[in-house]
Design a protein that fits this description.
Blueprint lengths: L2 E4 L3 H13 L3 E6 L12 E4 L7 H7 L5 E3 L9 H9 L3 E2 L4 H8 L1 H10 L7 E2 L3 H8 L2 E5 L8 E4 L5 H16 L4 E5 L5 E8 L2 E12 L2 E7 L6 H17 L5 E8 L5 E7 L6 H8 L3 H9 L13 E8 L4 E2 L2 E3 L6 E5 L6 E2 L6 E9 L2 H14 L1 E3 L5 H8 L11 H4 L7 E2 L4 E7 L2 E6 L2 E6 L4 E2 L6 E2 L4 E4 L19 H9 L5 H9 L5 H8 L1 E6 L13 H7 L5 E8 L2 E8 L10 H17 L3 E4 L22 H7 L6 E5 L2 E3 H9 L2 E5 L3 E3 L3 H6 L13 H4 L7 E3 L2 H13 L30 H8 L6 E3 L7 E8 L2 E8 L10 H16 L4 E7 L6 H4 L3 H13 L5 E10 H7 L9 E4 L4 E3 L3 H8 L1 H5 L4 H19 L1 H6 L5 E2 L5 H9 L20
Parallel strand pairs: 1-2, 1-4, 2-3, 4-5, 31-32, 32-33, 33-35, 34-36, 35-37, 40-41, 41-42, 42-43, 42-44, 43-45
Antiparallel strand pairs: 6-9, 7-8, 7-9, 10-11, 10-13, 11-12, 12-15, 13-14, 15-20, 16-19, 17-21, 18-20, 22-28, 23-24, 23-27, 24-25, 26-28, 29-30, 30-31, 38-39, 39-40
Helix pairs in contact: 3-4, 11-12, 25-27, 29-31
């Protein structure tokens, strides 16, 4: 029998506890000093030492439990909490963390909807004022959370900045994330949502009756939708669900205009407040279904739609102790509540007191039932909105409501209202001051009669004062825009990171500073942790640390490269030799987590000496519990990782560098797993830094992918590398493709420059070759064709005749992993006599290394194309074709192509040895051998191979790009992903 912890409060906690009890589960409730009414419905109540948003406190309370149900709000959409549940051995009742991250981030959810063809409203994540000027009125929205928090409608440009600031503050307080975006305002519009269980649609609801974006009344099914529109909404919701392989309960919400236009609003990967009306019209227990799915039991969702249902949210509008609490009852009436007589009604939490749910065979009867239920509902001891809801039911436009209807209704009571839920802390001349979240809000009231006292707790929108005219104009305050306040001046001074002496030394050696490199790499760079200093306050003064250890030797932040966001990080060798200190380890953890959360590429300038033994401000011993290396390694295969080495890069810095997908190094770089001190300390000799892993060692051995002359070129290469993972570009050019007809010599044994072939096939200037000096038998390069990125591998006949040795196979295998991980199509240009063989080759473990290339190629799922330039022999050719000529999307050959199970000469010697040995005359034997080779060549010519349909065609080399574009057009071969495609990209 499993034990369920319900990490929520109020009516939803009661609802979940009851469903679990019906399944025979043990239940645990979380209660606080301020609110414990729901605790009586559980087998056991645990006092929460913290808030419902405190993951540590919730997990501590979950000891001995098997599952955690988050309800709605609080931690319900917190992917980090879901992961921590899994790490603690607890089942989180909800979708996987990756889906929570995707759908819980409204910006990413919008992008997903666009990607799968579901219409969205125009929006922007920055440049809000420009967007407003183009689109007019907007809605400012928090990226995270829901429930109407962090949402503001703005109809005047002058109000935009204040609305953005207010939404950010609300969202940060409610959800821990202050990120916002803006969206065009669609009005009038209905708010219609579709209920999902996994990818199964269970109907829809109308939620248009809402006040300040918080729902008041929900109706199921949504009235007055045409069959075609209802079907379109259901299919759009299911499309989004299928795109993320959704599991569990969820809702996809839309705005619907009077003309039938609809647009995706958001997806809620959790149980909704209004799930009740869907339960009433389907007869299903959705919470039970959710709990069963969490235990991998498929619920029975068979049902017959029945009638109509309404939910009315009864909320508190004041504090007090309920002296009377008599909810309605009778046929077709359901009330979900945690309250009872004696309940202390506070405003510490959401003011929802009860949900009155009515059901009937038709909507008219359901409306009459709703009126009767509200008339029966008696609450004394605190004010509620029951009267308001009752009046709303009689509004002539109740069933034709749009989202702005309730807010447009005239108020019976006029006067100044509280802008927030909070406490009255002062009543001063002409003002009332309300404090919320340690922030005081001054409300002008003029000469109106004050209705509150100091100490009163008020809800948002509560009347503070009444009078005939309380439209008090606030006096405009004029500011000296050039004035710098003392607190700002102090902050600006700390952000002056100039260090002329250190910068001068750097420049004298022909090197750039870290900030110069970052500025060259990024635009719009925002630095994280710039004010951090070395953790050495026990041995140095604060002034010295501020002066000598800015940013603790690691400049890190988010900027834009080629217009796309990246995490950019650079060790500062002028600060404690670029070593890894306590604070910059923490910064790395922060940036790596951000890169994972936002799916941002990482560029790391890795110059530095590794671990720093001199930090003192900690209680650790070994430092081996540092998470930075683990977190960075986990990013492999999720986002592109770019490492740049210039100067000395040793120990931990080298490990981070080697973790990257691509290593770019300047010619003065030295890269090693240990620096001189570590080597000497290990008794391994005394060496100068320049002797440890110089580029003439690390480039031929494959550690370095791209060798450049200086940091400026390194930055340019990094930008170019990232561009291949940022999509297509416009404005491409290519060489005259007729050149390809002449690049492979007619003499079949004459070598040629395959890189000229690659440069001609690809768009002009688009080739970026990786690991050129390593595994020289195969060229691996990122290229573009018609502006679109892809990976390219090509045998180099100038090295070992194009034979594939162990190093070449390793190089190709790793490159194929990289392309596959990031959905880059691959084209293979084949000219190989096969794998390298012989005793010397076997000493390099060719059996394992060469088959590694085969295994990698066979497991690709990106589009793959094969072009035989000349030789395509044996297993080497099959490896170049991902295992078989029937595997690529196309396998074609140039007229110079020749095919066979092994090289022609070897095949003749092996197959006709007896006949050749029988010829005594050496001249005749040679003549016979050459004739047999010639016959074998004719048999294996591309035209003959195509006649047996072992390949798709023999083509004019000038048409090669045309064939390659077949990889790049048509339906997208890369489905939307919420996580990694491959576990990681091999570092070797």
């Amino acid at each position: 029998m499993p034990t369920l912890l319900v990490a929520n409060r109020g009516e939803i906690a009661v609802r979940v506890l009851r469903a679990a009890a019906d399944l025979g589960w043990r239940t645990v409730a979380l209660v606080t000093d301020a609110d414990d009414a729901h605790g009586r419905f559980a087998d056991r109540a645990v006092r929460l030492h913290g808030s419902y948003l405190d993951a540590d406190a919730v997990l501590a309370a979950a000891e001995g439990c098997d599952l955690v149900h988050p309800g709605y709000g609080f931690l319900a959409e917190n992917a980090g909490f879901a992961r921590r549940c899994a790490e603690a051995g607890l089942t989180f009742v909800g979708p996987p963390p990756e889906v929570l991250e995707l759908l819980g981030d409204k910006s990413r959810a919008r992008a997903l909807a666009t990607e799968v063809g579901v219409p969205v409203l125009a929006g922007a994540e920055d440049g809000f004022e420009d967007f407003f000027r183009t689109h007019g009125a907007v809605v400012v929205k928090a990226v995270a959370g829901g429930g109407g928090k962090g949402v503001r409608v703005v109809r005047r440009l002058a109000d935009l900045r204040a609305a953005v600031d207010r939404c950010r503050a609300e969202a940060l307080a409610a959800f821990g994330d202050g990120t916002v975006f803006v969206e065009e305002l669609l009005e009038p519009a209905r708010h219609v949502e579709v209920q999902l269980v996994g990818t199964t649609v269970l109907g829809d609801r109308d939620c248009s009756l809402q006040v300040r974006h918080q729902k008041l009344v929900e109706i199921a099914p949504a009235p007055d939708l045409s069959p075609d529109l209802r079907t379109a909404l259901h299919e759009a919701a299911a499309t989004i669900a299928r795109a993320v392989r959704y599991t569990g309960l969820g809702t996809v919400e839309f705005l619907v205009a009077p003309n039938g236009r609809f647009a995706f609003l958001e997806a809620n990967p959790r149980l909704q407040v209004e799930h009740t009306v869907t339960e009433q019209v389907t007869g299903l227990d959705l919470v039970r279904a959710q709990l069963l799915l969490a235990t991998e039991v498929e619920p029975d969702l068979t049902h017959t739609p029945r009638g109509s249902a309404l939910q009315l949210r009864v909320s508190l509008t004041s504090t007090g102790r309920l002296s009377t609490f008599v909810p309605p009852s009778g046929p077709g009436v359901r009330v979900d509540t945690h309250a009872s007589a004696g309940y202390r009604a506070g405003l510490d939490f959401d003011p929802l007191l009860a949900k009155v749910v009515v059901h009937a065979d038709d909507l008219d009867t359901a409306l009459r039932r709703a009126r009767r239920a509200l008339d029966e509902f008696t609450v004394d001891g605190a004010k509620t909105n029951i009267g308001f809801l009752r009046g709303l039911l009689d509004h002539p436009d109740f069933l034709k409501a749009h989202t702005g209807l309730v807010d447009s209704l005239p108020r019976e009571d006029t006067g100044a209202r509280s802008p927030v839920q909070g406490t009255v802390v002062a009543i001063e001349s002409g003002t009332v001051v309300v404090e919320a979240m340690k922030m005081q809000h001054v409300v002008p009231i003029g000469d109106a009669r004050v209705l509150v006292e100091v100490g009163d707790t008020v809800s948002e929108g509560a009347l503070l004062a009444e009078g005939v005219d309380v439209a008090v104009e606030e006096k405009a305050v004029e500011f000296d825009l050039d004035d710098v306040r003392p607190d700002l001046a102090e902050t600006l001074a700390r952000h002056d990171f100039s260090r002329p002496e250190a910068e001068g030394k750097r420049h004298s050696r022909g090197r750039r500073t870290v900030r110069e490199n970052i500025a060259d790499l990024c635009t719009d760079f925002v630095e994280y942790g710039g004010l951090a200093i070395a953790a050495q306050r026990r041995r140095r003064s604060l002034d010295e640390l501020v002066e000598r250890t800015p940013a603790d030797g690691l400049v890190a932040g988010v900027g834009k490269v080629n217009g796309g966001q990246v995490v950019a990080m650079s060790y500062d060798y002028t600060v404690l030799a670029g070593t890894q200190g306590l604070r910059n380890h923490a910064k790395k953890d922060r940036m790596f987590a951000l890169a994972e959360q936002r799916r941002l590429p990482v560029v790391l300038f890795a110059e530095g000496g590794g671990g720093r033994p001199g930090d003192t401000d900690h209680g650790g011993v070994s430092g081996l519990d540092c998470l930075a290396f683990h977190l960075f390694a986990k990013l492999s295969g999720l986002v592109p990782l770019v490492g740049i080495a210039s100067g000395r890069c040793f120990a931990g810095n080298a490990v981070l560098l080697g973790t990257c997908d691509v290593v770019i190094a300047t010619r003065d770089a030295t890269i090693g797993m240990g620096g001189p001190a570590m080597i000497e300390g290990g008794g391994l000799g005394v060496f100068r830094p320049e002797e440890i892993g110089p580029v003439d060692v690390q480039s031929p051995n494959g550690v370095i992918d791209v060798l450049v002359s200086d940091e400026a070129e390194a930055v340019e290469v990094a930008k170019k590398y990232l561009s291949y993972f940022q999509g297509p570009v416009d404005g491409w050019e290519c060489p005259d493709q007729r050149l390809l007809r002449h690049l492979v010599p007619e003499n079949r044994v004459r070598a040629y420059d395959v890189r000229t072939v690659v440069e001609t096939v690809a768009d002009a200037g688009s080739v970026l070759e990786l690991r050129r000096e390593f595994g020289r038998g195969i060229v691996t390069a990122l290229v573009r064709v018609e502006g679109r990125p892809l990976g390219l591998i090509a045998n180099d006949p100038a090295h070992l005749g194009g034979a594939i040795d162990a190093d070449s196979a390793d190089k190709a295998a790793r490159f194929l992993q990289l392309c596959d991980a990031f959905d880059l199509p691959v084209v293979s240009l084949c000219d190989t006599p096969g794998f390298m063989v012989g005793p010397d080759a076997e000493r390099t473990a060719t059996v394992r290394h060469l088959t590694r290339m085969l295994v990698t190629g066979a497991n690709l799922d990106v589009p793959f194309g094969f072009v035989a330039l000349r030789k395509a022999y044996g297993l080497g050719a099959q490896a170049m074709a991902a295992g078989s000529l029937k595997v690529p999307l196309f396998a074609v050959s140039w007229p110079s192509g020749e095919f066979g199970p092994m090289g022609l000469e070897g095949a003749v010697r092996l197959g006709y040895r007896r006949e050749l040995d029988a010829i005594d005359d050496p001249g005749q034997r040679k003549e016979m051998f050459e004739a047999m080779v010639s016959a074998a060549y004719e048999h294996g010519k591309a035209l003959n191979v195509a006649s047996a349909y072992e390949i798709d065609d023999v083509i004019d080399p000038a048409d090669t790009r045309l064939w390659i574009t077949t990889l790049l057009t048509g339906p997208d071969a890369a489905p939307a992903r919420t996580g990694k495609k491959r576990p990681f990209v091999d570092t070797w």
